Amino acid sequence: MRLFGLILAGGEGRRMGGTDKASLTLGGRLLVTWVAERLGPQVEELAISANGDPARFAGLGLPVLRDEHPQGPLSGVLAGLRWAAAAGADALVTAPVDTPFVPGDLAPRLWLAGEGACAVAEAGGRVHPACGLWPVAVAEDLAAWLAAGEARVMGFAARHGAARAGFPDENAFLNLNAPEDLARAESLLRKDA
Ligand SMILES: Nc1nc2c(ncn2[C@@H]2O[C@H](COP(=O)(O)OP(=O)(O)OP(=O)(O)O)[C@@H](O)[C@H]2O)c(=O)[nH]1
Ligand SMILES: [Mg+2]
């Protein structure tokens, strides 16, 4: 089984005041670095899904994949699936750049839950579909789904009967959408220290 990984960082961060969330720091480290360090060891190859100037990620040494048509996170998933398929991977594991505490066993648990088919993460009764596993075989169906104007990750997961992989720690999926979420993540870090 060849699993590739993708950090979703193609959003505009409007709730964060229009900041590129990848460039925010938590505990003195870039958010994109947090996610790269957690997801990278779980996959064979890792890339970043982002629009705008790719030079801002040069320090990470990872491929940067642009959306063909930015239409939400699924546009990034499609670019990632095409990249993974071209390199002979079986599936892509995605995690958003604003989820710094993403579990170190995300990929294997998603893989086990879905037995290689689509799977999404769940913790504390909430589903986190941007933390998901997508077989390369769904790429063209995703392209058609996006072309039909659909954009919801949860909707696409449901369309493929995605399995749910349960995780014990809700904080692992803490999503930094607004400045107060970043403050909460900083306070969790201080508690752990
Ligand atoms: N490739 C790609 N990723 C996206 C797109 N829109 C959102 N994302 C990513 O999907 C994840 C979840 O999106 P949000 O939490 O809404 O982030 P966002 O869109 O940057 O923030 P808001 O503008 O406040 O909604 C984040 O990691 C985003 O970077 C897009 O059009 N293309
Ligand atoms: Mg958004």
Architecture per CATH nomenclature, i.e. the level-2 architecture: Alpha-Beta Complex
CATH class: Alpha Beta
Shape: globular
Average residue pLDDT = 96
Query: What is the domain tally?
Result: 1
Strand content: 15-25%
The helix content is 25-40%
Q: What assembly state would you assign to the polypeptide chains in this entry? A: single chain
Uncertain regions spanning at least 5 consecutive residues: none
Q: Sheet bearing the most strands, described?
A: 7 strands, mixed
- Find the count of extended strands (DSSP E, 2+ residues): 9
Task: Supply the number of helical segments.
Answer: 6
* C-alpha end-to-end distance: 37 Å
Pattern of helices and strands: EEEHEEHEHEEHHEH
Q: Which structural class do the helices and strands define?
A: alpha/beta
Output the CATH homologous superfamily. Answer: Spore Coat Polysaccharide Biosynthesis Protein SpsA, Chain A
